[in-house]
């Protein structure tokens, strides 16, 4: 990870902490007798590069670690990335992706059933491509799933 990227992440985290403190202070000023409200923010996404992804992990821990609060098409792309080890020249059959997906529908993993809409959306977002029906490969822009 570059020093600039690390500094940016640290700065973002500090600004979010400051925002939370300011929000709590404003709540106290608005209603001095009320206890401060807990901050309910969505879980943060992993911001990873393909170089920092650990493709040596087994599939279940890999998916659990990196999927976070991703959408279905993003999870499809993540699973495709795992199966290809991040190599955009490798092709994976849709049936293989569906088979692996069906093994990980638990709440801590993919958390949902596979939907044929996911590969279509991954193609629409330029994260995956298909040259022949039922075979997918990563596009160079697939890492954008971590920025969403």
Uncertain spans, ≥5 residues at pLDDT below 50? 41-45
- CATH A-level architecture of the largest domain: Orthogonal Bundle
Mean pLDDT: 80
Taking the alpha carbons of the first and last residues, their distance comes to: 19 Å
Strand content: 5-15%
Q: Could you spell the SSE succession in H and E letters? A: HHHEHHEE
Q: The CATH topology of the largest domain is what? A: Arc Repressor Mutant, subunit A
Please give the domain count: 2
Rg result: 19 Å
Overall shape: it is elongated
DSSP helix fraction: 40-55%
Structural class: mainly alpha
Question: What is the overall number of helices?
Answer: 5
Order of strands in the sheet with the most strands?
A: 1-3-2
The CATH class of the largest domain: Mainly Alpha
**What can be said about the biggest beta sheet?**
3 strands, antiparallel
Q: What do you see in this structure?
A:
The protein is mainly α and 148 residues long. The protein folds into two domains: 1-41, no CATH class; 59-146, Arc Repressor Mutant, subunit A. The chain is 45% helix and 7% strand. The protein has five helices and three strands; from the N terminus they run αααβααββ. Strand 2 (128-132) and strand 3 (135-138) form a beta hairpin. It starts with a helix and ends in a 10-residue tail after the last strand. The model is unreliable at 41-45 (pLDDT under 50). The chain has helices at 3-30, 59-67, 72-84, 94-102, 117-124, and strands at 92-93, 128-132, 135-138.
